[in-house]
Amino acid sequence: MRFSIFVMLAAAAAGQQVITTFAGSDWVFTDDGKPGKQAALALPIALGADANSNVYIVDPLFNSVLKLDTKGIITIVAGNSIRQSAGDGGLARAALLANPASVAVDADGNIYIAEVQGSVRKVSPDGIINRFAGGQNGGILGDGGPALNASIGGPNALAVDGQGNVYIREGSGRIRKVDRRASSRRTRGKVRPELAETEGLPLTHRSWAPERSPSTKRAIFTS
Question: Is residue 68 within 8 Å of 55, Cβ to Cβ?
């Protein structure tokens, strides 16, 4: 459902100015559990899919990620309209997202969500959400260290390869890789710097996937 937000200033008893809602409210997704064809989306900007052909929809105006299952029913995966990154360790449906921009799903059913504010969240198959990478103070820092300790600059696209490595495109065009091998050894991913360059290939699409180039043995990206 779509709303507009208006505010007004009112004089408090003490003479200070206070702000209150005059009309409207946040953009709230009210079609949870309905057929997808009947659902009202606000600004669907990115899509993902899992191995079972369920489709995931990123809608930043709702600050939510939605799932359209193979029966055509749409449900909330994560986010609750309010723009805030909160709720780690709890159910993703009750958590808050801050400007989600992309979604990707690995072979195990883990759902990765990029937040423009600088973090990647992970929803496990049991529905629990946690921070996966980034979330530290701004900048692009942390290559070679744990992904949770890294700073990620405006992540806006994600991809997962066949080995479960996660690729993150930053707002500057830089690509970061979270190595799953490091994750299995240290219970958390490790950010690798070798993808700082992209072999001159344009990254102009939100949907892309890494492939291995036999000649360079580096990741290349295709639309």
Answer: yes
> What does each of the 223 residues of the chain score in pLDDT, given as a tens digit?
444 443 444 444 456 778 776 665 566 788 888 999 999 899 999 999 999 999 999 999 999 999 999 999 999 999 988 888 999 999 999 999 999 999 999 999 999 999 998 999 999 999 999 999 998 666 677 888 888 888 899 999 999 999 999 999 998 888 999 988 764 333 345 555 434 333 333 333 333 333 333 333 333 222 2
Is the alpha carbon torsion for 61, 84, 190, 202 positive or negative? positive
pTM of the model: 0.74
Question: If DSSP states are collapsed to H, E and C, what string results for the chain?
Answer: CCCCCEEEEEECCCCCEEEEEEECCCCCCCCCCEEHHHCCCCCCCEEEECCCCCEEEEECCCCEEEEECCCCEEEEEECCCCECCECCCCEHHHCEECCEEEEEECCCCCEEEEECCCEEEEECCCCEEEEEEECCCCCCECCCCEHHHCECCCCCEEEECCCCCEEEECCCCCEEEEEHHHHHHHCCCEEECCCCCCCCCCCCCCCCEEEECCCCCCEEEEC
* Token pair of 27 as six digits: 């953009």
